[in-house]
């Protein structure tokens, strides 16, 4: 649905265009991002688009930068969890993945990263950070290297699987989450 009524009275910013492009990325993927679609969504003419971007490639480059920043922010969120006690840290990691605002963006960025190498590098860096935090947490819980590695890998892969399967299978219930955390942290 176009947002024309809220946009016509004010000049759009680059952030408005990036927000609109991110909305299309989340709903339909990178291939669906087109100037005409964004203009329709924002209720403006193509001239408004060209005021901010030379072409669709420039918008896509700016959106990719924005998505890399999202991944870096996710990495910082992981680093910030280090101060929590181990089980609370795992609970917080699971909560981050299951937060609807985060999983939608993360799933869309990961899908786009399948065809954009710079995004793939950012996603890989975030995955490395998630694994490192999970591994260190499992070691703190008393698991040896082999078990800590297996449990950290399980947490990482479960999170990635959740991002891709949630639209078809729905959100994890509180019981699902509690049992999952218990399985990962129980000796």
Automatic annotation (TrEMBL):
Annotated keywords: DNA-binding, Transcription, Transcription regulation
HTH tetR-type domain: residues covered: 11-71
GO molecular function ontology, one term from the record: DNA-binding transcription factor activity
DNA-binding region coordinates: 34-53
Keyword Transcription: yes
Domain of life: Bacteria
One protein family per Pfam: TetR_N
Protein's name according to its UniProt entry: Putative TetR family transcriptional regulator
Biological source species: Gordonia rhizosphera NBRC 16068
């Amino acid at each position: 649905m176009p947002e024309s009524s809220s946009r016509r009275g004010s000049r759009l910013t680059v952030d408005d265009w990036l927000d609109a492009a991110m909305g299309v990325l989340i709903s339909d993927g990178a291939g669906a991002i087109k100037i005409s679609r964004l203009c329709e969504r924002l209720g403006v003419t193509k001239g408004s688009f060209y005021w901010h971007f030379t072409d669709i490639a420039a918008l896509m480059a700016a959106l990719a930068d924005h998505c890399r920043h999202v991944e870096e922010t996710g990495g910082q969120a992981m680093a910030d969890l280090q101060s929590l006690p181990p089980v609370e840290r795992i609970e917080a990691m699971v909560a981050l993945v299951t937060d609807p605002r985060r999983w939608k963006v993360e799933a869309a960025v990961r899908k786009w990263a399948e065809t954009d190498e710079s995004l793939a590098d950012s996603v890989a860096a975030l995955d490395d950070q998630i694994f490192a935090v999970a591994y260190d947490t499992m070691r703190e819980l008393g698991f040896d290297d082999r078990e800590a590695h297996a449990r950290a890998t399980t947490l990482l892969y479960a999170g990635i699987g959740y991002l891709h399967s949630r639209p078809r299978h729905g959100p994890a219930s509180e019981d699902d989450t509690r049992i999952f955390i218990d399985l990962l942290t129980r000796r």
